[in-house]
Amino acid sequence: MAVRALRGAIQVDADEREEILEATAELVSELMSRNGLTTDDVISVIFTATPDLTAEFPALAARKLGFTDVPLMCASELNVPHALPRVVRLMAHIETDKPRSQMQHVYLRGATVLRLDIAQ
After folding, report:
1. What single-letter DSSP state applies at residue 100?
2. Cβ atoms < 10 Å from Cβ of 43
3. Closest by alpha carbon to 3, among 59, 48, 42?
4. Number of helices (H) and strands (E), helices first, in the chain?
5. Quick check: is 22 catalytic?
6. Separation between Cα atoms, residue 90 and residue 19, nearest integer Å
7. pLDDT at 5 over 90
C-alpha cells in the first residue's frame, strides 16, 4: 500500500454555517466517491478556508459524514490579494494500491478555475 495525497476545493456561496457545512460535505463526498474510498482508507485530512469564511469549521462536515476516528485539522488560507473568495480546500492523505496517476482530485463550483488542468 502506498500513501497518496488528494486535493480538492469548492467555492461556498456565503459565509454561513450551513453553506460551509453543505459545500464541504459535497466536496468530501465527491472526493471519496470518485476515488472509491472509505473512511478506513483515509489517514488524515487538512482543511483550509479563505479568511472570509469564519462561520464554521469545515472539518465538522467530515465528522458528520462519519470521519469520527480520522485526524482532521482546519487552517486559514493566506490572504492573497485577488484570490478567489469563499473557498474551502482540502488535502486528504490516503492508503491505496492505485498509482498516483489514477488519483482524482476534485474541484467543484467556482473553484474549478483554480485547477483548469484537472477541473471536472
Report:
1. G
2. 13
3. 42
4. 2, 5
5. no
6. 16
7. yes
- Characterize the bridge pairing of strands 2-11 and 106-108: parallel
Positive or negative CA dihedral for 57, 42, 46, 100? Answer: negative
What is the per-residue pLDDT for 118?
63
17 tagged catalytic: no
Q: Which of 16, 17, 63, 95 is catalytic?
A: 63
Q: Which of 16, 74, 95, 100 is catalytic?
A: 74
Alpha helices, DSSP H, located in 35-93:
59-64
pLDDT, average across residues 8-13: 98
Average pLDDT over all residues of the chain: 95
Residue whose cell numbers read 489517514: 43
Q: What is the pLDDT of residue 71?
A: 98
Nearest Cα neighbor of 28 from 15, 14, 13, 46 is 46
Residues 47 and 87 sit within 8 Å (Cβ to Cβ): no
Joined together, the cell numbers standing for residue 95 give 492508503
Find the DSSP H helices in the chain.
17-34, 59-64
Supply 62's cell numbers. Answer: 467530515
Annotated catalytic residue 16: no
